[in-house]
Specification:
about 325 residues, alpha+beta, Aminopeptidase, 12 helices
Length: about 325
Amino acid sequence: MSIRPATENDHDSLRDLWLAFQDEVDTPDFLRESWEHAWEDLGRHVRAGLGFVSEEGGVVTGFVFGTVPRETPKLLHVTDLYVAPDARREGVARGLLHALVATASERGVGHVGLDLQIDNTPATALYRRLGFVDQERFLTAELAMVLERTEQVERPPSVASTHVQTDDETAVEHALQQFMPRLGRSARMEVAPPRNGWVSVVDELCDRDRSAQRRLGRELSERMGVPVVALALEEDAVVRFLLFERGRMVDEYLSVPTYYGALNKADELSLAANPTLVARLTGADPGRVRAVARTASSPAELPPARELFVQIAELMGLEARIDR
């Protein structure tokens, strides 16, 4: 395998690899470029000496292109890097990137950056090993969704239900009579009869105040010495659940961890469901927990939030109390 500067004579080989690249990463239609338009830019990168190809037996097997934007003269922007499947795991991507970065370094450039699809796990792992870190995030949305949501004056309401693992409905009611006055004023509260070994509580204060539901779940679990699940459908967009055992919160899940703002990676990971704990406390199948209680970077990547809420409640054997 050899790496050399790309030339305009590589046009046809690059076109075939480019089209394969577009298909493999499953580029959305609204982001997909035509080859003719792409070549206008890539040709300029070639003429600027910032394009390289890998070659094996006279066949082009990969490419890398970059540019140094006029507005950021100290930053090399890697626009495209691709290696054909048959040539992977042989250090080709590293070699291509090294050739491009070395050329930029000789020109006094000090940093390198690139764009990457968020679900491209192999490429992400490679760039992390090479020292790349997040600087910004590119987000997309359907215009219709943004138009609808920007027209809303207020955030959609949230609804919540708290589930106590017991058949003793009376004991739950007595505990609520003690705890609720300390939590705050509530316009409405309902205790449902046991179902599948769980007594469900819906309360107007807990619907609108997540901290009140958290405190209620902890109090009920500590007082009664049983597991408690606090479920919530927040702003009709994300699903949250809290698991309590003997008064201690042991797990928290949020379907879109960054919905309310950016988090560091550790905090983001901590909001994923723990299938082992969910299974132990609710009897749910761990495989179903992993399949259903997933996390994503936006609500659009998951089932509709109401549907997800019902699915999560069902896998735990709980009654979904959101239709009110």
